[in-house]
Design goal:
The structure is a single chain. The protein is of the alpha/beta class and about 270 residues long. The protein has one domain: Spore Coat Polysaccharide Biosynthesis Protein SpsA, Chain A (Alpha-Beta Complex), CATH 3.90.550. About 25% of the residues lie in helices and about 25% in strands. It contains seven helices and 16 strands. Strands 1, 4, 7, 8, 10, 13, 14 and 15 form an eight-stranded mixed sheet that branches. The longest helix is centred in the N-terminal third of the chain and has 14 residues, at about 65-75. The radius of gyration is 20 Å and the shape is globular.
């Protein structure tokens, strides 16, 4: 079924250190690593926007000022401006022709864990259902299907279960005859949490403080209480944990038809 996504805010966790990508994250936060000259964070926002989402809350932490500066410059580049050198004045931006979404850049603490960031964002969102995702993963997940599962479950939280891509190829044999060869398939076994959550405001009650990881005690308690459902996503999903992952995502983007590009999705609004 269709959903009114404009009423559902999106939380993006963008405050981690990204230590396994130190070659990139020494200069910028992990969600600002570029894939095709576009920061990962912008790829994520545009994907959600293609479903109709218009309000985004970015949970800042490590190098949050970098993200603020980027989007301040982004706004300046997307509109007209008058600079009066005689008076030494800069007029406000006008004739804005950029994106049609609202961005809240929320300071959630340098050392805050994922649970603490979600709790702070949930309090900011108020009594509204919201999406949440990590700032380092891309997918072509169907948000309509995710919400269908979430609403049908009646629970507080729904995660997207994914099968990670293999680091190596997979070969199937009949005797010594190769009958199937996949270069880097999505694995047929082993579901993991791929992020891309649908959450109710009540999840904040499961998070004690800033030091709590959402993936540990909160999700364990949600599961034990029957409040955690799963949407099984069997198509494209890729995290960005290592330089190998960055290289792969850039190669997919350069191929010309990345699965997460809004125009690649049937029925996309287009941005």
């Amino acid at each position: 079924m269709g959903h009114v996504f404009a009423d559902i805010p999106v939380v993006v966790l963008a405050g981690g250190l990204g230590t396994r990508l130190s070659e990139e994250t020494g200069k910028k936060p992990k969600p600002m690593v570029e894939i095709g000259d576009i920061p990962m964070l912008v790829h994520i926002i545009r994907y959600y926007r293609s479903f109709g989402c218009k309000e985004f809350i970015v949970a800042l932490g490590y190098m949050g000022d970098y993200i603020k500066s980027y989007f301040e410059d982004y706004l300046r580049r997307s509109g007209s401006q008058t600079i009066d050198f005689t008076r030494g004045e800069i007029a406000p931006i006008y004739d804005h022709r950029g994106e049609d979404w609202t961005l809240h850049l929320l300071e959630t603490g340098h050392d805050t864990m994922t649970g603490g960031r979600i709790k702070r964002c949930a309090e900011f969102v108020g009594q509204r259902k919201f999406f949440a995702t990590y700032g380092d993963g891309l997918s072509n997940i169907d948000l309509n299907a995710l919400l269908d599962v979430h609403n049908a479950s009646g629970g507080l939280a729904t995660l997207s279960a994914v099968r990670p891509p293999s680091r190596f190829g997979r070969i199937e044999f009949d005797g010594n005859q190769v009958v199937k060869f996949d270069e880097k398939p999505q694995l047929g076994e082993g579901w993991i949490n791929g992020g891309f959550f649908a959450l109710e405001p009540g999840v904040a009650d499961y998070i004690a403080d800033d030091a709590m990881r959402f993936e540990h005690e909160p999700m364990q308690r949600l599961a034990a209480d029957g409040q955690l459902a799963a949407h099984f996503h069997k198509d494209f999903w890729q995290c960005m944990d290592t330089l190998r992952d960055v290289k792969l995502l850039r190669e997919i983007w350069d191929s010309g038809n990345p699965p997460w590009r809004p125009s690649s999705r049937k029925g996309a609004n287009g941005v």
